[in-house]
Amino acid sequence: MTKKMQIDEFWQSYLDAQDPVQYDTAGTYEAWSFGNTPEMADDLGALVLQGIKTATASLVWAYEHEEERYPRIGDLSIILDSAGKPFVLSKPHRSR
């Protein structure tokens, strides 16, 4: 199974567990990992999974340089481990 297929399957299992009346299951997600080393991706992802890491930040410059939109409340992220496999689903609680 490819990494993309694993991520899509993870996403679909999340959607299947949601009440469609309570949550818009047509939403999208981003899949990414933390840091710049495999160890950092695994360590920080584990902290999210444990509920210890509940916030993150990025430079405004990075969003502007990459021409990406800022995160918004309700956005969903699939956090990947160092091998690119789905680790945990996360959503931001605040927006700028």
Summarize the structure.
With 96 residues, the chain is an alpha+beta fold.
Describe the structure.
There is one protein chain. With 96 residues, the chain is an alpha+beta fold. It has a single domain, classed as Sulfate adenylyltransferase. The protein has helices spanning 3-16, 38-49, 60-65, and strands at residues 29-32, 76-80, 86-90. It has a 3-stranded mixed beta sheet with strand order 1-2-3, sandwiched between helices. The longest helix has 14 residues, at 3-16.
Summarize this structure as a short list of keywords or feature phrases.
3 strands; 96 residues; 3-stranded mixed beta sheet; Sulfate adenylyltransferase; alpha+beta; globular; 33% helix
CATH class call: Alpha Beta
* Average pLDDT score: 84
Question: What is the CATH-assigned architecture?
Answer: Roll
**Level of helix content?**
25-40%
Instruction: Give the CATH superfamily.
Output: Sulfate adenylyltransferase
Number of strands: 3
CATH fold call = Sulfate adenylyltransferase
Distance between the termini: 38 Å
Chain-wise SSE layout:
Layout: H1 3-16, E1 29-32, H2 38-49, H3 60-65, E2 76-80, E3 86-90
Parallel strand pairs: 1-2
Antiparallel strand pairs: 2-3
